[in-house]
């Protein structure tokens, strides 16, 4: 499923990169592969994901990005061992913490602003910034054994940055329930809250993910890019401003070659041929 980062063949004795990559039929799979560290968002993991997503944004062959993990933990959030080690610095880690929180926030915004849909595939636990990553993705598919939590309050560190993504996915009451109690919720509750889209038995996970990704990859890449950008932009606007903005977006979209082709194909009862223009 995975390949060395950037497609470079690593020596046999070299450690695997933090993020494995595989591109097939327009679907780029990014696999966090540090199960021994619970796929935490360490310095190397943040750098690996950021680089992979930036490359995906610029690669016209990529239509959809799937983020998943190896091992039984999707992502355990920030690497607390790295964070604790920084307390030995003269400033008690202030500069390091600011840098790491900034890098994590940049990653989450990169996911949201990526001109390609991003799908999280969750097996196991997604906690703290790991739950934040799930919430930041456009879609999320989880196994029936997946669990989620924002447990910072339990260790004296409120999940304030995960709160940003969480509160934009679930209702305020549900977000505060997770943030204030720090308790773990199961996949069924996560779906009820709106944090994930689908719950799938492990044996059916791969075909379901493939179907989702292939369905999205079959659409006009230009149309999907326009739609994703508009979705997140209008969500931050007032009702009136959102309608004005989206009306203009639809005008520009109607003038695109892919819209002309898609409408003609529909009227002529044939399959459209997308050019991305």
Automatic annotation (TrEMBL):
A GO BP entry is:
fatty acid metabolic process
Swiss-Prot/TrEMBL keywords: Fatty acid metabolism, Lipid metabolism, Lyase, Transit peptide
Q: Does the keyword Transit peptide apply?
A: yes
Q: Which GO terms describe its molecular function?
A: hydro-lyase activity
- Cited Pfam families: ECH_1
Region (Disordered) location:
1-22
Q: Give the InterPro entries listed for this entry.
A: ClpP/crotonase-like_dom_sf (IPR029045), Enoyl-CoA_hydra/iso (IPR001753), Enoyl-CoA_hydra_C (IPR014748), Mitochondrial_ECH-domain (IPR052377)
Its job: May play a role in fatty acid biosynthesis and insulin sensitivity.
Describe the family membership recorded for this protein in Swiss-Prot or TrEMBL: Belongs to the enoyl-CoA hydratase/isomerase family.
The record's NCBIfam families line, in alphabetical order, gives: PRK08139.1
* Stated name of the protein: Enoyl-CoA hydratase domain-containing protein 3, mitochondrial
Q: Which organism is it from?
A: Stappia sediminis
């Amino acid at each position: 499923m995975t390949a060395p980062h950037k497609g470079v063949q690593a020596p046999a004795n070299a450690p695997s990169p933090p993020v494995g990559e595989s591109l097939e039929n327009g679907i780029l799979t990014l696999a966090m592969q540090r199960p021994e560290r619970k796929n935490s968002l360490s310095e190397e993991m943040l750098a690996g994901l950021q680089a992979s997503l930036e490359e995906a944004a610029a690669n016209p062959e990529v239509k959809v990005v799937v983020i998943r993990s190896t091992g039984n933990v999707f992502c355990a959030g920030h690497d607390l061992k790295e964070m604790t080690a920084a307390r030995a610095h003269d400033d008690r880690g202030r500069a390091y913490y600011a840098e790491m929180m900034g890098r994590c926030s940049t990653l989450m915004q990169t996911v949201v602003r990526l001109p390609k849909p991003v799908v999280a595939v969750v097996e196991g636990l997604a906690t703290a910034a790991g739950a934040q990553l799930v919430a930041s993705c456009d879609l999320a598919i989880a196994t029936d054994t997946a669990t989620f939590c924002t447990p910072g309050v339990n260790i004296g560190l409120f999940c304030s940055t995960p709160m940003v993504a969480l509160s934009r996915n679930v209702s305020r009451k549900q977000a505060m329930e997770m943030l204030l109690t720090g308790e773990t919720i199961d996949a069924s509750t996560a779906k009820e809250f709106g944090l994930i889209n689908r719950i799938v038995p492990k044996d059916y996970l791969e075909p379901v993910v493939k179907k989702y990704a292939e369905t999205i990859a079959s659409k006009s890449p230009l149309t999907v890019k326009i739609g994703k950008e508009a979705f997140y932009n209008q969500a931050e606007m007032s009702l009136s401003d959102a309608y004005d903005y989206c009306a203009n977006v639809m005008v520009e979209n109607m003038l695109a070659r892919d819209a002309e082709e898609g409408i003609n194909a529909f009227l002529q009862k044939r399959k459209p041929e997308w050019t991305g223009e």
